[in-house]
């Protein structure tokens, strides 16, 4: 537990602040709407569900402001570069961008559920109060005219006794945008599950772009002003705490209490999401500009097990070890972009990727390049983008773990180390890398081209970590993984178990590739 706290204190602090802000915003808004004089008459109809709906709406605005930031990949790559002088703990937080993106999405789902349930109760109470004919305060408030020319202003959005909740939902801006946002959110969340992303990436890719409808809907959701409060002038003319008991005399000219006037609250969601949306649009424009630059395919290699290697050149392209790019082939699908780790070294005069057949898109791409008498398909490239593997040379000892095609990130690292040793790079901190063998019938490694091959097999991790800790008792060890989540859990536990509480002794830092 002690090692876990030492290695994750910043993440815990960051999450605690985020959760604390959610709780603070919810409680603060709830108390505001439960006590504000402006909503005194509204509470007479709706009760506490008014405060629940408004508090969850504020939290939705807050989290919708954050949801786009973790997927601004160019921004994260820029921050990773500017934070190269920062502590390792601060830099590692950038590797959790997708985890934070998912947590924010879950929080949006939670507050969406609260918001919808609260409004279901609200509309039920609106409907019942509009049906009331007992002359009570609630019935009087609900019968206030929607016709502004007749004086006064309405409080209940259900104008007539025979008007249904469904009619109001699908004919009002707030109701219609709410339905659209909810459908978009459900589709995005369900298609983002691990199974869908791995097996049907195209479904995940297309449905996730429904966020456009979610953001647009959120921006205009409050325009209708369905939830209304008493105007400031009306409160000054007759305070609700004093005048509510004289509601039967509101139309009497001799009564000092006048019929209250109501107005909708100005929309506020757009204020929360404006800056992140502008930032995201700038990000997309930059990425579109980069993707339109010409890519020249210099070499195509078909490896065993349906693995395609593409070596390419692009003007102004600059990379670091472990980075990845997004690849698009317009002849297959003009909209789909898939991430691939760069397998070339920065020291080489080209950049390369290895593509394994793992779905319709990759199979179609490999098939297109296998056609001997057809022209080479045009490829578009966006990137490169940074990953945890960029920090590999910041460690004295590095342990590289790849499962299946997950060995590709480390091809770049191993080749770069070879080039650095050949060039006698004195800035290289790394003194020791773990190793093993791949394709025993080949003279060199299929990915790196080096005589030292990578090996298959599942090591005894406790033995491996114990040996490393004994051999390097005072070193900082970076453990890098590109592989499944089950393997990540095992390695993360070993890193915690074998790290010393004494910062002067061996420390293991776990790093996982996330796309």
Provide a brief overview of the structure.
The model is unreliable at 435-442 (pLDDT under 50). The chain is built from 19 helices and 12 strands. Helices cover 48% and strands 13% of the residues.
Shape: elongated
Radius of gyration: 30 Å
- Main β-sheet description: 4 strands, parallel
Helix content: 40-55%
Strand order in space, largest sheet: 10-9-11-12
Give the number of helices. Answer: 19
Number of strands: 12
Distance between the termini: 29 Å
What fraction strand? 5-15%
Q: Could you list the spans in which at least 5 consecutive residues all have pLDDT below 50?
A: 435-442
Q: What structural category characterises the helix and strand content? A: alpha/beta
**Overall pLDDT score:** 83
- For the record, the count of structural domains works out to 3
Transmembrane segments: 12-33, 45-69, 103-121, 167-189, 209-227
Protein name: NADPH oxidase 1
InterPro entries: Cyt_b245_heavy_chain (IPR000778), FAD-bd_8 (IPR013112), FAD-bd_FR_type (IPR017927), Fe3_Rdtase_TM_dom (IPR013130), Fe_red_NAD-bd_6 (IPR013121), FNR_nucleotide-bd (IPR039261), RBOH/FRE (IPR050369), Riboflavin_synthase-like_b-brl (IPR017938)
GO cellular component, one term: NADPH oxidase complex
